[in-house]
Amino acid sequence: MAKRIDIKDLNLFYGSFHAVDGVTLAVPPRNVTAFIGPSGCGKSTVLRSLNRMHEVIPGARAEGQVLLDGEDIYSAAVDPVSVRRTIGMVFQRPNPFPTMSIRDNVVAGLRLAGVRDRKRLDEVAERALRGANLWAEVKDRLGKPGGGLSGGQQQRLCIARAIAVQPDVLLMDEPCSALDPISTLAIEDLIGELKKDYTIVIVTHNMQQAARVSDQTAFFNLAGVGQPGKLIEVDDTEKIFSNPSTKATEDYISGRFG
Ligand SMILES: Nc1ncnc2c1ncn2[C@@H]1O[C@H](COP(=O)(O)OP(=O)(O)OP(=O)(O)O)[C@@H](O)[C@H]1O
Ligand SMILES: [Mg+2]
C-alpha cells in the first residue's frame, strides 16, 4: 500500500498524562480516513499531532514517528511551520477572521508567506473558493467581511483558506458539528471532491458521515478515566461497518455506548 502518512508507535502526552498510547496507522494518498470513538479517546489529540499542532499546547509532547511521504515530521531538521503549510487543518467551529474580507480570509496564508501580487492573490482566491464550492455564493461580495457568512458558508470559507496554500493533506476535526443537515451534506460532497487531490483525515461523531465519506475508518477507545486512548482497529470503512474485528468496535458503531 502506498503511504502518504505513516504513523509509527505514536504516544502523546499532556505533561505527565499519557493521553494516547502507541498508535500505528497508515493513510494512503487520495483517501479519506475517518477517526471515530467515544469522547476523550484521543481523536483530536492524534489529529493535531499529524501537523505538529499538538506541541503548541504547553507541556504537550509526542513520542514516536509520523512520516509524511517517508520523512519524519518530528525529525529535528523539520520546521513545524512548513509542516503546517503542507498539512492543513479545519476545525470544529468555523473560525474565519470575522472582520477580514472574504477574499483576504482565503489568501491569509499566502500573504503571511509574503505573496503581495494582487492578481496572483485574486487568482488563488477564486481557485480556492471554487474548490471549496463557495465561489457562486460569494463572488459578488468578496470584499465583505467573512463573519457575515452563514455557518456552513464560513466552514467552506475555512476549507478554502486551508486549500489556498495547496497542502498535501487536510485534517478536519468534526468539521460539520456546528452545521445544519444541508450544510453538512454540502461539506460531505466537498470532501468527496477534495479527495481527488488531497489526502483527508476527518474526526466525526456521526457514524453515517464516517460511512458516507471515508474509505478507511480508525476506531479509538479508552479503557477508563485516566487511561490512555488506544487505536482498537483500522480497516476499510465497509468492513468496519459491516464486520468489525472487535466487539468494542461493533458496540460503538451500533450505538451501544459512546
Ligand atoms: N490541552 C489539553 N491539556 C490536557 N489534557 C488534554 C488537553 N486536550 C485534551 N486533553 C486530554 O486528552 C485526552 C484526549 O482528548 P481529545 O480531545 O484528544 O479527545 P477526543 O477523542 O477528541 O474527544 P471528543 O470526542 O470529546 O472531541 C482526554 O483525556 C483529554 O482530557
Ligand atoms: Mg475531539
TrEMBL record:
InterPro entries: AAA+_ATPase, ABC_transporter-like_ATP-bd, ABC_transporter-like_CS, P-loop_NTPase, PstB-like. Keywords: ATP-binding, Cell membrane, Membrane, Nucleotide-binding, Phosphate transport, Translocase, Transport. Residues 5-247 form the ABC transporter domain. It holds the Pfam family ABC_tran. It comes from Labedaea rhizosphaerae. GO terms for biological process: phosphate ion transmembrane transport. CDD domains: ABC_PstB_phosphate_transporter (cd03260). This is Phosphate ABC transporter ATP-binding protein (PhoT family). One of its GO terms (molecular function) is ATP hydrolysis activity. The keyword Transferase does not apply. Gene3D superfamilies: P-loop containing nucleotide triphosphate hydrolases. Part of the ABC transporter complex PstSACB involved in phosphate import. Responsible for energy coupling to the transport system. NCBIfam families: 3a0107s01c2 (TIGR00972). It comes from the Bacteria. It is found in: Cell inner membrane. GO terms for cellular component: plasma membrane. It is a peripheral membrane protein.
